[in-house]
Amino acid sequence: MALYSAAAAVLAGLERGEGGLKSLVYNSGFPHVRQLYALVSETLRYASVLEKLLDEAALLQAEKKLEPQLAKVLVYDLLFGKGLKCGGRWKALARRHRARLEAELARMKVRHKVSRNEDLLAPETAVSAAAAQVPRYVRVNTLKTCVDDVIDFFKRQGYAYLGKAASVEELKALSGKKFLLDLHLPELLVFPSQTDFHDNLLYTSGHIILQDKASCLPAFLLGPVAGSHVIDACAAPGNKTSQLAAILKNKGQIFAFDVDPKRVATMNTLLTRVGVTGCQLAQQDFLTVDPRDPKYSRVTHILLDPSCSGSGIVTRGPGEEVVSSAERLQALAGFQRRVLNHALSFPALQRLVYSTCSLHQEENEDVVQAVLQKWGSAFRLVTAFPSWPCRGLAAFSGAESCLRASPAETLTHGFFVAVLERCKEGAAAPSLLPAAAKESPQPGEGTEPGATPKKRKKKKQLVK
User: Fold this and answer.
1) Is residue 152 a known part of a binding site?
2) What CATH number was assigned to the domain covering residues 133-210?
3) Does 86 participate in catalysis according to the annotation?
4) pLDDT, tens digit, for every residue of 318-371?
5) Is 200 marked as binding a ligand?
6) pLDDT digits (tens, 9 = 90+) for 279-318
7) Annotation-wise, does 236 bind a ligand?
8) Domains of the chain: which residue ranges?
9) What is the full DSSP assignment across 264-322?
10) What's a GO cellular component annotated to this UniProt protein (predicted)?
11) CATH number assigned to the domain with residue range 214-422, chosen from the 4 options 3.40.50.620, 3.40.50.150, 3.30.43.10, 1.10.3720.10
12) Measured between alpha carbons, how far is 53 from 48 in angstroms, rounded to an integer?
């Protein structure tokens, strides 16, 4: 059972944009990482087929307690994998539906006029090509070190530092052992896409975190000042939580929620490794948290990255980029509206970031528009990060204040971000960039490519 649960947790992390496949597998705590990686990879490769089988066999309707991610893993191994060699009660549950699933698979082959399972897979798509060009992003963990020291460390390992990027085209051109400082985010280094750091000392010691650039945007744009009380409403596996702690400099309080006990355990391990303090983890559905609880009376900032379709994630196999059914999108959007409304009800809240790793307007602009209409003049959208090239779809007036990310235009996973602030009578217009962006100097600015970056006062000694 542990294997299937771990695989389902990785799939959920991918859908929430919490990292790439390798990062989530290595951070899962599962002892047999190759076995887990293979299972998740193959499940992703067959994801579009599995979604159709689940819909046509009505498995999720018949088994209300079965999560979609776990259902995909079980059905993959039952029909395409090793035949459910483990799994305990989940194996028994899946086998109860075996005849119906096999019948639906047979009908699917007849409709497509194929005889092999592999022939149901779509050919390589543009999304797969986009995935190949998304660089490896490395966020420097400023709780343990600083950007300049990490740059020096990589240079000692034979990497060539090219300075701060001036354009997305420079990121596209990266190759070999060359790297850049990102053109937008001050603590993000950029390497060629296939660079693997899972065995690197900086990664294993928690000095760097492998996190896609789009996934770094929500905490960066929330920008709480040191000492703030912050909620990370859907936190696991913890990359964004650790980024919030770095922005806060471990001064203040973070309340991090996730309903799944295994994901909470994984998050606890990650946060400990990267040096996070002042964070209370809770295995709890955020919708059950009481906004009037005195514990949260000083919460001024909330990061909300709820479950979504995951349609913007590009690190997946052929056939995965299939538009979710209208029914599923409506169900997800309903949940997202509920959780966003709940987050806005915290009485001291001043600033909230809503984000998804979805491309669908139903989960993004439509959710924000509906919730803002409900709250009237209490909250407003902030035009955050005006230099960001991709803006929200023109679904409503103000959508241009939102951000979108895409493999083609920003070299990231597909993402959506909206920044909401409480309106104050007579208050000055909110800053267009968070405090985190203002306070962070840019290493290497003004230097020639390959030159040693300007030094600043070191925070903590880097692992040698």
Assistant:
1) no
2) 3.30.70.1170
3) no
4) 333 444 577 888 889 999 999 999 999 999 999 999 999 988 999 999 999 999
5) no
6) 999 999 999 999 999 999 999 999 999 988 888 877 644 3
7) yes
8) 1-121, 133-210, 214-422
9) HHHHHHHHHHTT--SEEEEES-GGGS-TT-GGGTTEEEEEE------TT--SS-TT---
10) nucleolus
11) 3.40.50.150
12) 9
